[in-house]
Write a structure and sequence with these properties.
about 450 residues; alpha+beta; Chloramphenicol Acetyltransferase; 6-stranded mixed β-sheet; phosphopantetheine binding; CAT-like_dom_sf; catalytic activity; Condensation domain-containing protein; Condensation_dom
């Protein structure tokens, strides 16, 4: 075993988990339904090939003084694909619940493994493949890369090594990024980024739960909804993006900010967005490289949607440019009075994500299966896949604050803002665009 430092992002995640290690807040899972039979032993062999290439997949995390360190195993340990069973002729809902149980099984950080893979042989034949990781060693991009490499390993002719990932160099490991980032924190560029956040967040409001209260700050009480974005809304979103020369995601963020201001009764909106902190050097490195950074927007009634959209686009660019400042440090820069609060700066996060997954694995057609989760890390965590193939929203929400109908209304309000903005070439103020919105649950009681 080799000792290695954790990055600042890993450390803040590890500390967060220590509050209640039995929760499954940071358990990530991808579930794929394949249109044929994939033997577990064949998948196991491909898995060993991939794990041997990537230190993160052979990492455990152990306490060390007031913090923790990573231990890297030079060799891939005994890896087993778990054979799971499902009811005869299961429904997709039953498979989703089975996948959730697999995802939420405890990980033992000091002993590992922090990667688990399971399969379910189904009639047809079909195969359900479950790939789970702890967020300390993998993020969404890691899972995408992992599945791509598994596919190459499964598709290689018998007895031949799979092709190396196209254009990728050796995976230095997340610990190499941790060392780089520790050095980067002493640079003028990092200090400039800190100054940016201090100025951008000066006087920002401390967030409150929907309706001004009622939030429990319990992170284990949540549900998820997977919702297709209506075709008309998707067209309007892309039309607005083209007209204003902004990304479709910036349009969605602006629309959500307008709704957020109405639902919270606070025009000074601070939303979180997840950004990948990988530099070019680490672009194909497996590990945890996600930072949540704030985007602050003026969504007051006199603001025009075009101005809100421009600010959202600029805010996203700022988020990327200054992404190396860890969230906990950003909270400190935002001013006193936020320590000891479960959600000290943002209670709502809106991010882009790949919700589709690969369309093939091991020569078989693949389709991603929606997996219900019981975590509620924020009031609302909205992930948007705005690819032309699948314009989809995945909404994780705190069930102490919102019900399913509330989330549907929240998304419908966003779509109403998109419609009003697309139909408004004169650029009315937000007061006109949001006049007919439903508002938060308390307003409809």
């Amino acid at each position: 075993m080799t000792r290695a430092p954790l990055s600042a992002l890993q450390t803040q995640l590890w500390l967060s988990e220590q509050a209640d290690p039995e929760l499954a807040l940071y358990h990530e899972l991808t579930a794929l339904l394949l249109d044929g039979d994939l033997p577990a032993d064949r998948l196991e062999g491909a898995l060993r090939t991939v794990v041997a290439r990537h230190p993160a997949l052979r990492t455990v995390v152990v306490p060390d003084g007031d913090g923790a360190v990573a231990l890297l195993d030079a060799e891939a340990g005994p890896l087993r694909v778990t054979r799971l069973t499902a009811p005869a002729r299961p429904t997709e809902k039953q498979l989703g619940l089975l996948a959730r149980e697999f995802a939420e099984r405890p990980y033992r950080l000091p002993t590992g493994p922090l990667l688990r893979v399971g399969t379910v042989a189904l009639p047809g034949p079909r195969t359900l493949v479950l790939v789970g990781t702890h967020h300390l060693v993998a993020d969404g991009r890691t899972l995408d890369l992992l599945l791509a490499e598994l596919d190459r390993a499964l598709s290689a002719p018998a007895g031949e090594a799979p092709a190396e990932p196209g254009g990728a160099g050796a995976d230095e490991g997340a610990h190499a990024y941790a060392r780089w980032h520790a050095e980067h924190r002493s640079t003028e560029a990092f200090r400039d980024a800190e100054r940016h956040w201090a100025e951008a967040l000066a006087g920002a409001p401390t967030p409150v739960a929907l309706g001004g209260g009622g939030g429990t700050d319990r992170l284990d009480r949540g549900e998820t909804l997977r919702l297709p974005l209506a075709a008309r809304s998707a067209r309007r979103l892309r039309s607005l993006a083209a007209a204003h020369r902004r990304s479709p995601f910036a349009v969605l963020l602006a629309a959500f900010a307008a709704v957020h201001a109405v639902w919270h009764g606070e025009p000074d909106v601070v939303l979180g967005t997840a950004v990948d902190v990988r530099t070019r050097r680490f672009r194909d490195t497996f590990g945890h490289f996600v930072n949540v950074v704030p985007v602050r927007l003026d969504a007051g009634p006199d603001t025009r949607f075009a101005d809100l959209l421009a600010a959202a686009g600029d805010g996203l660019l700022d988020a990327v440019e200054h992404r190396q400042v860890p969230f906990e440090r950003i909270v400190g820069l935002a001013g006193p009075g936020r320590r000891g609060v479960a959600r000290p700066l943002v209670r709502t996060v809106v991010s882009e994500a790949n919700l589709t997954g690969p369309d093939r694995l091991g020569g078989l057609c693949a389709r991603r299966l929606a997996v219900p989760r019981t975590r509620g890390r924020y009031d609302v965590l909205l992930q948007a896949d705005l690819s032309h193939a699948a314009e989809t929203l995945l909404v994780e929400y705190d069930t102490a604050l919102l019900g399913r109908d509330d989330v549907l209304r929240l998304v419908a309000d966003c779509e109403d803002v998109l419609r009003a903005a697309a139909d408004d070439p004169a650029g009315r103020r937000l007061a006109g665009l949001t006049a007919g919105l439903a508002g938060p649950p308390a307003d409809r009681a």
